[in-house]
Design brief:
- The chain is of the alpha+beta class and about 230 residues long.
- The chain contains eight helices and twelve strands.
- A hairpin with a 5-residue loop joins strand 9 and strand 10.
- Helix 6 packs antiparallel against helix 7.
- About 25% of the residues are buried.
Length: about 230
């Protein structure tokens, strides 16, 4: 595993994130006993998938998306490994879902002519509880320990030696023609579709669009693509 919680800094610094659930793993508790399996991996079992590279080559494998590590994993004999060389990946299809790699794996919601609507989901370590009862910065040693884990079975055996707080997060993003990422909010929709700003703004206001709801964002995106 190359990175813990798929770029926590990316999630917590540059974009608006929707925090959904929080899990506290007390000292002496096993991670897998506190955090449900469906909050650690996206699919209940490894699912048929296709990895398409930018050079056109394809590979089929049983794949899963790991929320905790922010990586797409595959089964190699009895081991669970992460896809490597992500920048060379064009897209990854897992069942009916499609992922691209852009500073982390992003699930494609809808692809348009020049822009795309995507979401990024994960389970990140947001804090640890100090011995004095206060909260402090994340302990880098946990990053090192969890990076060495390459399978769900290993995660089941991992025991916390101090109280850790994990938060389930989701963010919706727009990708422009230059592959730059933008928070999917009203301001950025109007910025990325400048030629039809008046019509788009009217659609957003008339339909009471909520920008933290996937179905509302999809409606706005689909409408913007028709303008």
């Amino acid at each position: 595993m190359k990175s813990l919680f798929f770029s926590s800094c990316f999630l917590l610094s540059s974009y608006i994130v929707i925090a959904q659930k929080t899990y506290k793993v007390e000292a002496g508790e096993a991670f897998a006993d506190i955090i449900p399996k469906n909050e650690i991996v996206k699919y209940s079992s490894f699912t048929d998938g296709v990895v398409t590279m930018k050079n056109g080559k394809k590979a089929t494998a049983k794949l899963n998306y790991h929320y905790l590590f922010g990586e797409i994993e595959f089964i190699n004999q009895k081991d669970t490994l992460s896809l490597d060389n992500e920048n060379a990946i064009e897209n990854v299809a897992i069942g009916t879902d499609s992922f691209i790699y852009n500073n982390g794996y992003l699930q494609l919601i809808r692809k348009g002519k020049d822009h795309s609507l995507v979401k990024k989901e994960g389970l990140i370590l947001t804090d640890k509880l100090k011995e004095n009862g206060g909260f402090g910065k994340m302990n880098a040693s946990y990053g090192q320990a969890l990076r060495s884990i390459s399978s769900r079975n290993a995660l089941k055996q991992l025991i916390a030696n101090e109280t850790l707080v994990f938060t389930q997060v989701k963010e919706f993003l727009l990708i422009d023609s230059k592959s730059d990422l933008w928070t999917a909010n009203k301001k950025n929709f109007l910025k990325l579709y400048p030629g039809k700003k008046k019509e788009l703004e009217n659609f957003i206001d008339t339909n009471n669009i909520t920008f933290n709801k996937e179905e509302d964002l999809l409606r706005v995106f689909q409408y913007a693509e028709t303008l």
